[in-house]
Amino acid sequence: MLFSAYIRKMFKLSYVPTSQELIDKAFRRGSKRAKAMKARKYLPRDQKLEKAEESRISSVKDITSGTLREIVREFPSYEKLPGFYRRLLDLKIGKDDYKRTLASLEWCSKQIDKLSKESLQKLKNVAKEKKRHGEIRKISKAFLGRVSSLLKRISKDMEKLREIKSLLEEFPYISEDFTIVVAGYPNVGKSSFVRSLTKSKLEVANYPFTTKQILVGRAKLNSRKIQLIDTPGILDREMSRRNKIELEAILAIEELANVILFLIDPFSSLDSQLNLLKEILENFSARVGVAINKIDLLQDSAIEDLKKKLEKELKPYLATKRVIFIEKISAIREEDAKNLIKKILDF
Ligand SMILES: Nc1nc2c(ncn2[C@@H]2O[C@H](COP(=O)(O)OP(=O)(O)OP(=O)(O)O)[C@@H](O)[C@H]2O)c(=O)[nH]1
Ligand SMILES: [Mg+2]
């Protein structure tokens, strides 16, 4: 049994240009179209300028407002997102920022639509008059000027959206398969455990908060698909004091876990780890498998002492099967990791 690497992402979004890029592209296209119109032989000479500026305005509008609208349509609607993604977006991006940014682009595209309608109408009106060339140029120029300043007005939002896009594209794809969430204090060996079961090179290091976001691995075991989630470490402290990295782990526990695999590090405070474990047991509903990790570094007697202590502390939870086992492993040993997964699936 091997878990596959973490490639699949939830969102793939098209390129988001900067305001200036959009202005440049639209104006270039506008010029091209205007020139092409002027080159047309069949048009009466006195209509050429009007038609040329008309097509300049239309194509600048199509590109600017059209691109903005496409972008807004392509980004996921916050309200329609499944619960986990909605909360992840709120955590990593902020729901209000997200909505405000998209609304600003939408506003801009509507303004450009309105402006182009007015400008085209003005063109038609002056086209009836004599000596109108100067007027026609003026109308077209004014339109371009206003489109450009509208787009410059939203340039911060365009930048923001470019950042949002890269954050969204990091969101992992989560399936409906049976899900084991590996959780615990920082530095207990969660990533080492997940790494032992995967082909990928997860980052593992001997300092807390090495893992900064959740990572997903998949495997098939006896035709049963399972999903394994590595999470950042969580400290034993008030929910309101936890940082975004910790909250992402909490989110995975709360929204995704069918079973939580809670790893315990014998070399850091047992009290803190037990507090965290009890908090999880009290607040979330998934069953929990507990594993003492890093046993390759401990003497058997020390491991047994620790296990007894845990059994005593978790007695009520063991009795109700909220805690399904207390095991001892070394996460860096593939065999141990595999056996533990089997134990969870057999339960
Ligand atoms: N000897 C030994 N070292 C281990 C074992 N499991 C993890 N380690 C080491 O413990 C350190 C932390 O391991 P990680 O897997 O990064 O721990 P983590 O829980 O993912 O840490 P965060 O992502 O920071 O929360 C690393 O130096 C690992 O090599 C184990 O079973 N035996
Ligand atoms: Mg880690």
Which tags fit this structure?
single chain; Four Helix Bundle (Hemerythrin (Met), subunit A); 12 helices; 347 residues; Rossmann fold; alpha/beta; binds guanosine-5'-triphosphate; binds magnesium ion
Instruction: Give the strand order of the largest sheet, numbering strands 1, 2, ... along the chain.
Output: 2-3-1-4-5-6
Termini separation comes to 18 Å
CATH superfamily of the largest domain: P-loop containing nucleotide triphosphate hydrolases
**Helix proportion:** 55-70%
CATH names the topology of the largest domain as Rossmann fold
CATH architecture of the largest domain: 3-Layer(aba) Sandwich
Runs with pLDDT <50, length 5+? none
What oligomeric state best describes the polypeptide chains here? Answer: single chain
User: What's the pLDDT, averaged over the residues?
Assistant: 93
Shape, principal axes of CA atoms: rod-shaped
Largest sheet: 6 strands, mixed
CATH class of the largest domain: Alpha Beta
Number of spatially distinct domains: 2
Using DSSP, what is the number of strands?
Answer: 6
Query: What bound compounds does this protein have?
Result: guanosine-5'-triphosphate, magnesium ion
Query: What percent strand?
Result: 5-15%
What gyration radius follows from the Cα positions, in whole Å? 30 Å
How would you describe this structure to a colleague?
With 347 residues, this protein is of the alpha/beta class. The protein folds into two domains: 19-168, Four Helix Bundle (Hemerythrin (Met), subunit A) (Up-down Bundle), CATH 1.20.120.1190; 178-346, Rossmann fold. 56% of the residues lie in helices and 11% in strands. The chain has twelve helices and six strands. The protein has helices at residues 19-38, 45-74, 83-92, 95-127, 133-153, 155-168, 190-196, 244-256, 270-283, 300-313, 315-319, 334-346, and strands at 178-184, 215-221, 224-230, 259-264, 287-292, 323-328. A six-stranded mixed β-sheet has the order 2-3-1-4-5-6, sandwiched between helices. Strand 2 (215-221) and strand 3 form a beta hairpin. The longest helix has 33 residues, at 95-127. It is rod-shaped and about 100 Å long. It starts with 18 loop residues before the first helix and ends with a helix. Magnesium ion (MG) binds at residues 190-191, 210-211.
